[in-house]
Write a structure and sequence with these properties.
Elements lengths: L25 H29 L16 E4 L15 H6 L1 H7 L3 E4 L28 H13 L3 E7 L15 H5 L2 E6 L2 E6 L10 H10 L5 E5 L10 H12 L4 E5 H6 L4 H6 L4 E5 L6 H12 L11 E5 L15 H11 L5 E5 L57 H13 L2 H4 L3 E2 L4 E2 L2 E6 L3 E6 L6 E7 L5 E3 L7 E4 L7 E3 L3 E3 L3 E7 L2
Parallel strand pairs: 1-2, 1-10, 2-3, 3-6, 6-7, 7-8, 8-9, 9-10
Antiparallel strand pairs: 4-5, 11-12, 13-14, 14-15, 15-20, 16-19, 17-18, 17-20
Helix pairs in contact: 6-7
Length: 517
C-alpha cells in the first residue's frame, strides 16, 4: 500500500457502505462461468451428435412382424439331432438358432410336434394337441426354443393339425354372444353422463382347440397354422370359431389357415371368416410352367385375399411337409434356387421349406431298403457344410431317413442376401400402396415367352425391382426394352449394369434387378 491507500493493482480500500459483491473473487467467478458455458456447449453438441448417429438410416413404413417377412418351415425330426439317436429334436433346433438368424428369417414354423404311436413315421396320426412327442423333447423344450428365437428377434409358429385327431369341429358358444357383448352401457359420475361402448368379444368355447391355443401361448408360441379345417364336413360355425381363436391369440400373434378352407366356405360366411385371419397359405406349383404361375398369382392377387392393409395377407408356399420337395429326381438344384428367389419377390409372406435355401434333394433309396418310409422321403434330413463342427447326427448313428444325395451351399448366401434385400425394401415387403382413400397394387406379374416369368415390384419414392425367372431348360436372349430400359443386378458381389434390349438369362435361373428410374 502506498501513502494514498492504493495497492500495486490499483485496489481501493472498501468502506462500510460498499456492496458485498464488490469483494467477491471475480477472476475465479469469470473462470467458473466460462467453464460452465463451454461445458454446456459441448454437452449440447454431444447430444446433437448422438441424436444424429442414432437416427434410423431409412424411414420405411412398418408392418406387423408376420406381414412381408419370411417364414422358415421345419420338420423337426429332420433338422438337427442333439442326442444322437438319428432323429432330429427341439434342442437340435435351438442349437441351430444362430444359423436361422444368419439366414435372415423372421419366424420359424414347426410342423407337427405332437405325439403319435410311431413318430415320425406317422406324424399325422397325433394323439394329443397339448403334448410333445417324446422323440422330439418336452413342452419345456418348446419354451426353450421360443426363448432362443425371441433372443434373436425371431418368432415361433406351430402347425396345429386338427384332422384326423378331431372328427368334427363342433358348435361355437360365440355364435349368440357377440351381439350381446357389443351393447352400450351408461356410467354416471359427478353428475355427468358418459357413454362407453364395449369392445365386441366372443365368448370362448371350452374345447380341445381353445385349450391347446391357451396352453401353447403360455410356452411362448407366437402363432398357429390351423391345419385340416377343410377336411371337416360341417363348417357352419367356422367364422365364430375363428373369432374365438383370434381373440385368444390377440393382435400380436398370427393365425394362419389354408386357401382350401376358403374354397369350401361360401359367402357371406367367407368374408366374416377372413376378418379374423391374418395369413392365408397359398401353394404354388412351380412345375407347371410360367404361364400357369402367371395365371395363378394374378388370380390370387385379384381374389378376396387381394393385397390390402389392413386386411388378410397371403402366405406363399412352393414346398412343404404336404408337397414334394423341389429338388428331386430329374430336377436340377438350380431350379430350386430359381423358384425360391421368385417366391421371395412376391407380395405377402413367403414360406421357405427347410433345405430349399441349399437346394436340398429328397432322400434317395437306391437299394429300396426304406420302402416303408418312401412317402416321407421329401422330409430328408438337413445337410450342413463339411467344415461344420456338427452334422445332422454323429458318424456312428444312421439317420432315420436315407441321406439326400445333393445340396449346394453356394446358394445359401444368395438366398440370405435376397431375404435382407426384401427386409429393407418396401417395394418388396409391402403388398400394396395404401393411400387415404384407395389401395393401389405394387406388383405386376408378366410372362415373356413360355418359360420366363417377370415379377415387378414398386413403391413411391423407393427403388423398384424386378425378378426375371427362366423355368425352362434353354438359355435365352430377350428384348424386354418395352418394359424396362436398364438396371443393376443384385445379390452378387459386383453390381453389374444391364440393358434389357439384349437381356440374357440361363436355364433355371432367376436374376434380380434394381430398375433404373
Amino acid at each position: 500500500m502506498d501513502s494514498n491507500g492504493h495497492g500495486p493493482n490499483g485496489n481501493i480500500p472498501l468502506g462500510k457502505d460498499t456492496p458485498s459483491f464488490v469483494s467477491w473473487n471475480w477472476p475465479l467467478i469469470r473462470k467458473c462461468t466460462f467453464f460452465v458455458f463451454m461445458s454446456s456447449l459441448l454437452a449440447m453438441c454431444a447430444v446433437v451428435v448422438a441424436m444424429i448417429v442414432t437416427l434410423p438410416k431409412t424411414c420405411n413404413p412398418k408392418t406387423m412382424w408376420y406381414r412381408g417377412s419370411v417364414f422358415y418351415e421345419i420338420f423337426p425330426a429332420s433338422f438337427q439331432d442333439s442326442d444322437n439317436d438319428g432323429i432330429g429334436d427341439l434342442r437340435g433346433i435351438v442349437q441351430r438358432s444362430d444359423y436361422l438368424k444368419s439366414l435372415g428369417v423372421s419366424a420359424v414354423r414347426l410342423n407337427s410336434i405332437f405325439p403319435s404311436p410311431h413318430y415320425p413315421d406317422d406324424f399325422k396320426n397325433i394323439t394329443s394337441l397339448t403334448d410333445v412327442s417324446k422323440v422330439l423333447g418336452t413342452v419345456e423344450d418348446v419354451q426353450q426354443l421360443s426363448q432362443a428365437l425371441h433372443l434373436r428377434n425371431m418368432s415361433l409358429v406351430l402347425d396345429l393339425p386338427l384332422f384326423p385327431y378331431l372328427k368334427e369341429l363342433g358348435k361355437s358358444d360365440g355364435a349368440s354372444a357377440v351381439k350381446v357383448l357389443a351393447s352400450t352401457t351408461l356410467n354416471v359420475s359427478d353428475g355427468m353422463t358418459t357413454t362407453t361402448t364395449t369392445t365386441p368379444r366372443p365368448v370362448i368355447t371350452t374345447n380341445l382347440i381353445t385349450q391347446a391355443l391357451q396352453h401353447w401361448i403360455k410356452f411362448g408360441v407366437d402363432g398357429f397354422y390351423i391345419k385340416g379345417l377343410e377336411e371337416f364336413v360341417e363348417l357352419e360355425d367356422i367364422d365364430y370359431h375363428m373369432a374365438e381363436w383370434k381373440d385368444i391369440l390377440g393382435y400380436s400373434r398370427v393365425l394362419i389357415i389354408s386357401e382350401a378352407v376358403l374354397e369350401k366356405v361360401k359367402e357371406p360366411q367367407r368374408s366374416l371368416l377372413l376378418r379374423h385371419v391374418d395369413l392365408v397359405d397359398v401353394h404354388l406349383n412351380v412345375f407347371n410352367g410360367a404361364k400357369d404361375l402367371e395365371e395363378r398369382i394374378n388370380n390370387v392377387l385379384a381374389s378376396e385375399i387381394a393385397p390390402a392393409d389392413p386386411g388378410v395377407w397371403v402366405q406363399w408356399s412352393i414346398a412343404g411337409v404336404d408337397s414334394p420337395r423341389l429338388t428331386r429326381n430329374g430336377v436340377n438344384t438350380n431350379f430350386t434356387l430359381t423358384a425360391t428367389l421368385m417366391q421371395l419377390m412376391l407380395p405377402g409372406t413367403p414360406n421357405i421349406f427347410y433345405g430349399d435355401e441349399i437346394g436340398l434333394q429328397a432322400a434317395k433309396d437306391q437299394l429300396n431298403e426304406h420302402n416303408e418310409t418312401k412317402h416321407l422321403h421329401h422330409l430328408s434330413t438337413m445337410q450342413w457344410p463339411e467344415n461344420s463342427t456338427q452334422q445332422f447326427t454323429n458318424r456312428e448313428t444312421l439317420p432315420w431317413l436315407p441321406n439326400a444325395p445333393t445340396a449346394n451351399f453356394d446358394y445359401l448366401p444368395i438366398v440370405s442376401r435376397m431375404i435382407r434385400l426384401r427386409d429393407r425394401s418396401p417395394s418388396i415387403y409391402k403388398n400394396a400402396i395404401c393411400k387415404t382413400e384407395s389401395v393401389l397394387p405394387n406388383t405386376a406379374i408378366r410372362r415373356s415367352e413360355d418359360d420366363i416369368l417377370i415379377v415387378e415390384r414398386l413403391y413411391p419414392r423407393r427403388n423398384s425391382f424386378a425378378s426375371i425367372s427362366n423355368f425352362g431348360q434353354k438359355r435365352l436372349t430377350l428384348d424386354m426394352s418395352s418394359n424396362f430400359y436398364s438396371g443393376v443386378v443384385m445379390l452378387h458381389d459386383s453390381s453389374d449394369k444391364i440393358y434389357f434390349s439384349d437381356f440374357q438369362i440361363g436355364p433355371a435361373e432367376s436374376i434380380i434387378v434394381r430398375l433404373d428410374k
